[in-house]
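S.,

Sequence below, as promised.
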Amino acid sequence: MTLCVYLLGTADTKSEELDYLRAVLTERGVSTRVVDVSTGEVSYQADISARTVASHHPQGAEAVFCGERGRAITAMSEALRHFLPGCDTLGGVIGIGGSGGTAIVAPAMRSLPVGLPKILISTVASGNIEPYVGESDIAMIYPVVDLQGLNRISRTVLANAANAMSGMIHHHYTPPADTRPAIGITMFGVTTSCVAKAVRTLGSSFECLVFHATGSGGRSMERLVAQGMLRGVLDVTTTEFCDFVAGGIFPCTAERLESIAQTGVPYVGSCGGLDMVNFGAIETVPEHYRDRVLLQHNPFITLMRTTPAECRQIGHIIGERLNRCDGPVRFYYPEGGFSQLDCPGQPFHDPAADSAFRDALLDTLRQTKQRRFISLPLTVNDPAFAQAMADELTQLFREHEHYAKN
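The prediction came back faster than expected:
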């Protein structure tokens, strides 16, 4: 069976671009299938028609061809999301579009497995792409000009995308077999020392997948937990809860820790980065936060110290979510500070705020034999703290696996 690159676009407005992508890929020896995701009737003869895609909507094709643009785009996106994963010849995807076309194809591309080549050429790619990429490995390319016919710019950008896809298809990477169980670990720059020590400790027994705690990182980790790819979690860096509470740029969602609750995988968490909220450049910090303790991390990121009130709210939230977890849970509290910046002499050192989190968590958390709070007189980046968490996860994993087998 020959694998193909599926070319996704609205053929009523993007037929020239779709044909050009096909031509470049054909020259490179790559098979293609053009998939029309138009929401109106068109004369273009795609390999897979818009009506064929639309028929995969749970309510049938008429849910797509409803005559109302907004509803039609949403419905076609859902239909494509049901259609695409079932394509046996799917070897890679290139999507093209403006804001409407991107809204159609991005959710379907996100639903595809990590590692399957995905390129999205979109006029919205120079803005906030988080809603389109989410926790997937979509590569987005900004076309510079609008995708309205071919010209010297669009030809170059489209050819580059096609050549990149050709390289991914012809040089498909198959990772070597690894018999170690995979675990997820969360990290921020200010908790790197802790995570590095934990990885060194755990690496002989586990394949350690480290996730940057920027909102999407936490979601990516939990998605892999839900899919069964991760069999344990060392949640060193729960900082995404700060941005969730205070309106920062790297928030988790209301579903954070939900996959831990649903799967029951061994979980060891801590307070990494709970001393900070993330904003963009200094001028983007909301006016009502300008009198707070702020630190310019780099030209693009400004950190704000969490207050006792915010830490108290975070403690209640984390406690409530951990209470829903019936698997083995341990939460480690570093009495000496939550990050590299939350230590004596550092700008975010605030024992009162840290204690507010601890007290709120203890007030909320229902401790059992499976679910326990552990406090150590160390900072989060102390090697002994990392060692203790790593050893705990190893023990919980062994007990969990033994129980599952018996």
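The chain is about 40% helix and 15% strand.

Coffee later?
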